[in-house]
Amino acid sequence: MKVKRETKRLYVGGLSQNISEADLQNQFSRFGEVSDVEIITRKDDQGNPQKVFAYINISVAEADLKKCMSVLNKTKWKGGTLQIQLAKESFLHRMVIQRISQRTSSSVLTVNVKQRRQRLRSRAIQERNG
To answer: InterPro entries, alphabetically (predicted)?
Structure first.
């Protein structure tokens, strides 16, 4: 039986400043296929790193996702305490999906209008010739 995998976006907080994409890739790849790691460092007014977190895209089965969150969440790792949760959909991601959806629906409408015109023309030709 094939296990259904879905791509999930995880928020991983509580990271230390010296964490790398490779570290996160290795840590999470034992639960699923990691396709993207994005590390974000928020700095204070003086430019000192204040908060380090990451977003990870992982293709994972539901059972493995639960296992990942229960095993890694709130554990100490490389100088930080991990906080893992499903990430909220980003505004930019929502906009991209909305634009694609609008393009698709407008192109479908265009095709339908062209098909209707063709049918009407062929009927008119048939009536003239018929």
So the answer is: NOP8_RRM, Nucleotide-bd_a/b_plait_sf, RBD_domain_sf, RRM_dom
